[in-house]
Amino acid sequence: MARDPYDVIGVARAASADEIKRAFRKKAKALHPDANQKDPKAQDRFSELNNAYEILSDDKKRKQFDRGEIDAEGKPKFTGFEGHGAGRPGGGFAQGGETIFEDFNFGPGGFRRSSTRSTGGQGQKPPPMDDFFDILSGMSSGRAGGRGFDPFTAAEPKPAGEDITLTIKVPFLDAARGSTQRVVLPSGEALDLKIPAGTREGHRMRLRGKGKPAALGRPAGDAYVVVAVEPHPAFKVDGKDLRLDLPVALDEAILGAKVRAPTIDGEVELTLPPMTSSGKTFRLRGKGLAAADGAGDLYVTVRIVLPEPSADLEGFARLLQDRRKSDPRETL
Description:
Blueprint: H1 5-9, H2 17-31, H3 42-56, H4 59-66, E1 92-93, E2 99-107, E3 110-118, H5 129-139, E4 164-170, H6 172-177, E5 179-184, E6 190-195, E7 204-207, E8 223-229, E9 236-238, E10 241-249, H7 250-255, E11 257-263, E12 266-272, E13 281-284, E14 298-305, H8 311-323
Parallel strand pairs: 4-8, 10-14
Antiparallel strand pairs: 1-2, 2-3, 5-6, 7-8, 9-10, 11-12, 13-14
Helix pairs in contact: 2-3
């Protein structure tokens, strides 16, 4: 069962719209999945926070929740037997404090209706429970033999529609840059879904009322769309950071060079200093994935690629061997 939106955001019921917004932003920063990458429930808590803010940030929905018309998920609540409240004709409380209890029955003489009127003064006794059950029975359509529905089951809400979960595959760069993806629901309805920039594997989005239909008068279920990000041949995800192995020629590593390195936004020029060793890593700030607390970085690691074998290369290697004065593994 969903928690009270006020408790989720951590504000009092009398909180102003600005107080709710400030509290939401503070919690969103603390609960964001990027800040809780080792917590498997981080996404669920963040979704719960967003759902709560969706209700409390909307003045109409907030008032509906405060009046008990919708639940903590924003779904309409079953309100019982409407039409028998204050000031409504046909039962309940009449004007001037009078109480009208109407008795509807099917008997040998056919349909009968009578009423008991009380002024609400001192000493008046409420009608017996049988009269209350007669009112409930009279509200039914009636069955042969004068049988109505069971008063104890009449107030049971009809079941709401079931929620469904869909998984969509999104290309890595579309998820990293942000894109629009088409989703086809089991009903056949097609929707264009906005994928935010920086979307990670397992990101879940909620489509209200797009789940399985429900009984008449009850809300349909929701559809939850889970994003499966397709892997990229070069980029590896590390939280909000990205990592990339960059092939470099032997001469580029020895002499130094300007080389092109890919990023999710296009290629950039990277300067290699002379005598760059394989395994050296360069940090490109802000070239990682978008996140609520700022974009991540791209870490580019040099991988030296040897040229095709040749006599010249072998001679060069033997010259290096003769002149080498240190063991590259002496620190191990």
